[in-house]
Design goal:
The protein has 329 residues and is mostly helical. It contains 15 helices and no strands. It is globular.
Length: 329
């Protein structure tokens, strides 16, 4: 693999701001992003991604490739948490295995954006329908994680003679489909799809021109948070950090194979594989905290944010791009 690709990726301003945040935290600087702003940055990114994707989908239309790609995306969001759960259950209790499995079955919008930015430097641009895949991959993993937690926890609690607490399907489905992040990106996608290029012309100064600046601020805050939480994994041994690096590569390889079978172009294949390889640290933790309160956030949040996210933006994206370049020759 050409190391210049990794270096180019590292030198993107948003990525550099992520490391600036980590350095600031490690050096115990007083640098802080005021509390309401990170939430605003998250909402802005979800809005901009969803709206842009909807506009691009309006341009390209919906054909057989688009439908098959979206079905494959949903299938990956269901399958990844299933096998991840059984791997994690070797070392963890049911609740933490289910929470981490849901985290890795879902996606990271910021990793997606970094992959798109990476492609732009190569003069390539993914199809807008891939944003629809991003929106569709968020919920299934949450549902699978919660179902597995309840099914296997029931057996575990009975075996240990503990009282089993029932859960509400209505609350689970409400959280999975109407979680604020999911609702915003899905709604933005539909608005972009309906309004098309006229809508884009109206909102592009807000949805496009300031996008990378907002992304840089968001990643600066992510760097601060990641550096603070990476210490939470100190006492877990090598299993969880190794899982946080190995499983994204495995998922990406499966994603690349599917993309090849579907006949996607290299840009779409990269973004699809990155979606399969990423882990959620915004929507899933919010849903899991409500639905599986027994799980420990100091495990599943730093794994996604402090291990898998940096790995993907430093090594993963260039590595997946290199593999795709080999297979598509």
């Amino acid at each position: 693999m050409n190391t210049s690709v990794i270096i180019d990726n590292l030198l993107h301003p948003p990525v550099l701001f992520f490391f600036l945040g980590m350095i600031a935290s490690f050096c115990k600087s007083d640098l802080k992003i005021p509390e309401p702003l990170p939430k605003l940055f998250s909402l802005y990114l979800l809005f901009a991604i969803g709206f842009h994707g909807g506009v691009e989908l309006h341009k390209t239309g919906i054909d057989q490739t688009v439908i098959l790609t979206l079905v494959a995306a949903i299938a990956m969001a269901v399958i990844v948490p299933i096998y991840s759960f059984f791997i994690l259950k070797i070392k963890l209790d049911v609740y933490n295995a289910a929470a981490i499995a849901a985290t890795y079955g879902s996606i990271s919008a910021v990793t997606f954006i970094t992959a798109v930015t990476f492609l732009e430097t190569s003069g390539a641009e993914p199809g807008g329908y891939i944003v629809a895949a991003l929106a569709l991959m968020e919920s299934p993993a949450i549902i699978v994680g919660i179902i597995f937690a309840r099914i296997f926890a029931k057996k575990q609690d009975k075996a240990e003679g503990m009282e089993y607490s029932e859960f509400s399907w209505l609350k689970v489905l409400h959280e999975a489909f109407l979680n604020g992040s999911i609702l915003l990106i899905t709604g933005s996608l539909l608005i972009g799809l309906v309004s098309g290029e006229k809508g884009w012309d109206t909102l592009s100064p807000f949805a496009k021109d300031i996008f990378k600046g907002m992304l840089s601020f968001f990643l600066l805050d992510m760097g601060l948070v990641a550096a603070k939480r990476i210490g939470d994994l100190k006492h877990t041994g090598i299993f969880l950090p190794a899982f946080g690096i190995v499983i994204p590569v495995v998922n990406a390889c499966i994603g690349i194979s599917i993309a090849k079978l579907l006949g996607l172009n290299q840009a779409d294949a990269l973004v699809f594989s990155v979606l399969c390889a990423s882990a959620s640290y915004i929507a899933v933790p919010a849903a899991i905290r409500m639905s599986i309160p027994e799980a420990n956030p100091s495990l599943y949040v730093p794994m996604a944010l402090a291990i898998t996210f940096p790995f993907n933006i430093i090594v993963g994206i260039p590595l997946y791009f290199y593999l795709i370049s080999l297979f598509w020759k």
